[in-house]
Design brief:
The chain folds into two domains: about 160 residues, 2-Layer Sandwich (Beta-Lactamase), CATH 3.30.450; about 60 residues, Arc Repressor Mutant, subunit A, CATH 1.10.10.10. Helix content is about 50%, strand content about 15%. It is built from ten helices and five strands. It has a five-stranded antiparallel sheet, with helices on both faces. Strand 4 and strand 5 form a beta hairpin. Helix 2 runs antiparallel to helix 6 and helix 7 packs across helix 9. The radius of gyration is 21 Å and the shape is elongated.
Length: about 240
């Protein structure tokens, strides 16, 4: 007999549409005692305004209000998720900096919740939130279920990334050659084209040729932007 984690992984791996995937996540969340769940996936590029996708079964009125009021910008759970992958439990103290958001969330039945972020080597970030209208989370409940909740975060992130990322951004890292990546690595270390040509024993023109190709493939405008994007995508690891 498969374990809970194995069954969840199997179900998510065999779902190929975002709605189908999220339905599996909803079912898993319900099994853990939560009537609501939401997942936000953020692409690593562009840095100034990353593309995002939200999937949620929150009440529609709350989803609309959250967007209209731009609560995302002040949501303390989002702020926490940006700097830590540790799970966080909703509380009065947590939302003390955003009392209006907290009051309205509770009015829509979102009174008790838990959230955790997920990041990968390519810079793709996400956050899963599990919530309900009654029964606060207790230490006993967390001791019994938090391992499963954290497993749900990880598997949801991997599965939703697989399905959503192609529509959020291209996949330029598959097009870069080994030499282009190598040149960008040296450029990231502050080496000039002349210094890179000496290190790699190639001409300056050849170095610049590889840089130009990388800039084009990464859909950037100059070498600096190409280096930053390649680093954000995990290509320079």
């Amino acid at each position: 007999m498969k374990s809970w984690a194995e069954e969840l992984l199997h179900d998510l791996n065999h779902a190929n549409a975002d709605t189908e995937l999220f339905g599996k996540i909803e079912t898993a969340a319900e099994g853990l005692g939560f009537e609501f769940c939401a997942y936000a996936l953020r692409a690593p590029w562009p840095l100034s305004k990353p593309r995002m996708r939200w999937l949620s079964n929150y009440p529609e009125a709350w989803q609309k209000r959250y967007q209209e009021a731009r609560y995302f910008d002040i949501d303390p759970t989002v702020r926490h998720a940006r700097r830590s992958q540790s799970p966080i439990v909703w509380s009065e103290a947590l939302f003390s900096c955003a009392p209006e958001l907290w009051r309205e969330a509770k009015s829509h039945g979102l009174r008790h919740g838990w959230a955790q972020s997920a990041f990968d080597s390519c810079g793709v970030g996400g956050m899963l939130t599990l919530a309900r209208s009654s029964k606060p989370l207790t230490a006993t409940e967390l001791a019994e279920n938090e391992v499963k909740m954290r497993w749900l975060v990880s598997t949801a992130h991997l599965s939703l990334k697989r399905v959503l990322m192609p529509s959020l951004m291209a996949d330029p890292e598959r097009e870069l050659t080994e030499r282009e990546v190598e040149v960008l690595k040296w450029a990231a270390d502050g080496k000039t084209s002349g210094e890179i040509s000496t290190i790699l024993v190639i001409s300056v023109d050849t170095v610049n040729f590889h840089v130009k190709n990388a800039v084009t493939k990464l859909k950037t405008t100059n070498k600096t932007a190409a280096v930053v994007r390649a680093a954000m995508l995990g290509l320079l690891q």
